[in-house]
Amino acid sequence: MNRPTLLRGEQDWSKLRPLKWILPAFFVLIGIFTTYYTVQSDSVGVVLRFGKFSSTVDPGLHFKLPFGIDEVEVVPVKRLLKLEFGFGSSDFTNADQVGEEPDDERAMVTGDLNAALVEWVVQYRISDPKLYLFQVRKPAQTLRDLSEAVMREAVGDRTVDEVITVGRQEIESFAALRLADLAKTYELGIQIDQVQLKNVNPPQPVQNSFNAVNKAQQDRESMINVANGEYNKVVPKAKGQAEQKVSEAEGYRLKRVNEALGDVTAFQAILAEYVKAPDVTRTRLYLETMREVLPTLADTWIVDRSVTQLLPMVQSATKGGGK
Q1: Are residues 34 and 100 in the same domain?
Q2: Are the CB atoms for 201 and 117 separated by under 8 Å?
Q3: Are residues 123 and 62 in the same domain?
Q4: Pairwise CA distance, residues 126 & 190, whole Å
Q5: What is the pTM of this model?
Q6: What distance in Å separates the CA atoms of residue 38 and residue 60, rounded to the nearest whole number?
Q7: Do residue 62 and residue 119 come from a single domain?
Q8: Which residues of 144-165 are buried (b: 16+ CB within 10 A; e: fewer)?
């Protein structure tokens, strides 16, 4: 078949016909590569359709509508995130982890109008991806502002000694609870895991004075511990000795009471016999008494005018006892 002859001034468009398939093929490739996506194991995907929240998907391979109809925001809900205040790690991956002005963040005033340099860390997790993305603009930055406000409140209600020494744990607990309540109130979609104080120091010009005060307090605590040790060693021993004395006295009391009761019982028995036969009982008591007394009179002599011979009491008692 003969090709038509071109007139002067006309262009041959037949050579451009293969190009008409390039643009459709390009759109097809874009559609193919924008219809699937992958969510990491520590995250969830939030699907936006025409910019509006559509659904939440679990980790794995998923498909979506191409050409920007569906967009996916990956939120690391299982990852422990943290914010650092007053300092910054060099290997951080979270853009909001380190503040822009660390020196301003850590400079605080305590309740007794002293200055302190406080460094702390807030660890948190994203608990609700929908709230985290759409409820508050820049939720991580909002959490930074709330954390700084809460820490200044906690430090401002305590003395500098409490902030630096004994009050650290109380401040951490208060800040964690307070920050969790504020995150819930502002609907940040964030769960506070821990608030941890790092370095708490006085300003450099008064560092030496504070160190001297701390050393004095430590010496005081050491002396108190030594005194308590001596107390715990001496007082229980004294209490044991006192209880032993009380027990001995109680035993002696019971012994004397029992002896007295026995004597009373014996006296009452003798009295009953005496009432029945006074003369016989009187004579028996006299003889029994003399039997106990006479053996003790070894060096005693009895002189009687009617007796011409002097006899010692022991021999007389012995002879009498023999009879």
Answers
A1: no
A2: yes
A3: no
A4: 5
A5: 0.59
A6: 5
A7: no
A8: bebbbebbeebbeebbbbbbbe
pLDDT value at residue 313 = 52
**Do 88 and 198 fall within a single domain?**
yes
pLDDT at 321 over 60: no
Structural domain including 313 reads: 290-322
Please tell me whether residues 97 and 189 are part of one structural domain. yes
Q: Considering the domain boundaries, does residue 305 fall inside one?
A: yes
Neighbour-count burial of 84, counting CB atoms closer than 10 A to its CB (0-12 exposed, 13-18 middle, 19+ buried): buried
My answer on whether 130 and 38 are in the same domain is no
Residue 174: which pLDDT band, with cuts at 50, 70 and 90?
A: very high
Region of 140 (left: φ > 0; alpha: ψ -120 to 50; beta: rest) is alpha
pLDDT of residue 181: 96
Residues 6+ apart with CB under 8 A from 98: 84, 88, 89, 92
pLDDT in tens, 3-31: 555 445 555 555 556 666 666 766 667 76
How far apart CA 53 and CA 47 sit, in angstroms, is 6
The 10 Å Cβ neighbour count of residue 183 is 23
In one-letter notation, the amino acid at residue 178 is: R
Residue recorded with tokens 């007389």: 316
Could you tell me if 65 and 94 lie in one domain? no
- Per residue, the 3-state secondary structure of 133-163, as one string, reads HHCCCCHHHHHHHHHHHHHHHHHHCCCHHHH
